[in-house]
Amino acid sequence: MSKRGWKQQSVVATIQNPASTAATRDNRYNIDGTQKNEPATVYYRSDGHYVVCNDLTGDIVQVSDTNDPNWIDPFGNIIGSP
């Protein structure tokens, strides 16, 4: 997370007080090669950067790269736009 400009405190703050949220799925692969299909939530900051959290496990699935001005949000939102 730190390579993408996030600290634990900023992840927690985003989840606790998001500018907006969106439902998604956690489709990560398990060690045995099977794929998860669990509910997850995208928590957005006001600048468009986001944290994805698995709703069942609390795992952080993905964070946007706050250091990359050309980061493309795979959920269809434009980074830097409310």
Structure description:
With 82 residues, the protein is mainly beta. The protein has one domain (2-63). The chain is 11% helix and 28% strand. The protein is built from one helix and four strands. It has one helix at 8-16; strands at 20-26, 38-44, 50-54, 60-63. The longest helix has 9 residues, at 8-16. The mean pLDDT is 92.
Task: Identify the notable features of this structure and list them briefly.
about 80 residues, mainly beta, 4-stranded antiparallel beta sheet, 1 helix, about 10% helix, globular
Summarize the structure.
This protein is mainly β.
Per DSSP E runs of 2 or more residues, the count of β-strands stands at 4
**What portion of residues belong to β-strands?**
25-35%
Mean pLDDT: 92
Overall shape: it is globular
Biggest pleated sheet: 4 strands, antiparallel
Instruction: Give the tally of structural domains.
Output: 1
Oligomer: single chain
Our count of helices gives 1
- Give me the Rg, rounded: 13 Å
Percentage of residues assigned to helices: 10-25%
The SSE order reads: HEEEE
Please state how the strands of the largest beta sheet are arranged side by side.
1-2-3-4
Low-confidence stretches: none
Alpha-carbon distance between the two ends: 23 Å
Query: Helix/strand-derived class?
Result: mainly beta
